[in-house]
Amino acid sequence: MKVLDLGCRHGHVFEGWFASEDDYRDQRERGLLECPVCGDQAVEKRLSAPYVQTRRTEDAGARQGGSEQAGGGTPAASVPALTPQQQGRLLQALRAWVRDSEDVGERFAAEARAIHQGEAPARSIRGVATPDEALALVEEGVPILPLPDLPLLKEPLQ
After folding, report:
1. How many Å apart are CA 89 and CA 139, to the nearest integer?
2. Whole-angstrom distance, CA of residue 32 vs CA of residue 43
């Protein structure tokens, strides 16, 4: 199995899994590859660090009580990967939320607290909070969803 870092002409980077280098080339030539974010079919390989899994590494992990399930070889806490369509829908939903919410900037913690306590009108807000401020909000029962500041959420979907 060959895992490649791929990217489209719009700057989206993602992984592709192929049986071999020939399989990658064949799928690319037949137009079967596309960006899971924007659907662009101009997909190219990106530089990536190699990873080699050996049988000895697998056996050592199992003997040392690694996080693999008995017999399955799958990490116990693995999360199923999203399909490209699911990734695209998630990205569209996050972008819609960013577009439809009010950016309160550094006032986020105070504004979220005021909304929660009924001292400010209820609405979707976004902004910046320190880790301590976010923890305090959670401990107070204020419903928040910490997200990284990703430019990808602010770009138009290609």
Report:
1. 31
2. 10
